[in-house]
């Protein structure tokens, strides 16, 4: 079995399915790494709400105003589902925001081999801690926690990557692009992710657009 697998993860840090899907992926990747296989992760940005304001409005109020009360009920039900897998979603504290600068921070972290812990911290900051992940001061605080130096990736680079994702016809997240295998979408189970990672390690080859 080859000793490395490359994975592209398309996600947004304010997407509940992205948080659950990434958590499952991280657990599966840790299991594969324990088997001696290197798993390299690249995050590709996706904006759930392009151009959304960063003025700090409560998320549940925005959901209800935009999509109606059923959206709030759905979010709270999803929180109960995620809790069964050890994730704590505090929607009562969550803040609606644009995420362009959060994606830029993940790109900064990637240059320092810290993209995975940075993404996890941003997910947790938004969903559990009720922190404003569109606020520059908050992002600086989170970067310091993870040990990431900011400002290395220019905004134009992030915009180009967002454009590249659009050209891949990705309209929803998360998407897991594991080597040359068919992409996995939504929140696959940890078992499915691990099986796909193992398959990729065993049949590694092919090419992805980058």
UniProtKB/TrEMBL annotation:
What InterPro entries does this protein map onto?
Answer: DSBA-like_thioredoxin_dom, Thioredoxin-like_sf
Stored Gene3D superfamilies = Glutaredoxin (3.40.30.10)
One GO MF term on file is: oxidoreductase activity
Pfam families attached here? DSBA
Record domain DSBA-like thioredoxin: where: 6-187
Which domain of life does the protein's organism represent? Answer: Bacteria
What is the protein name given in its UniProt record? DSBA oxidoreductase
Organism name: Planotetraspora thailandica
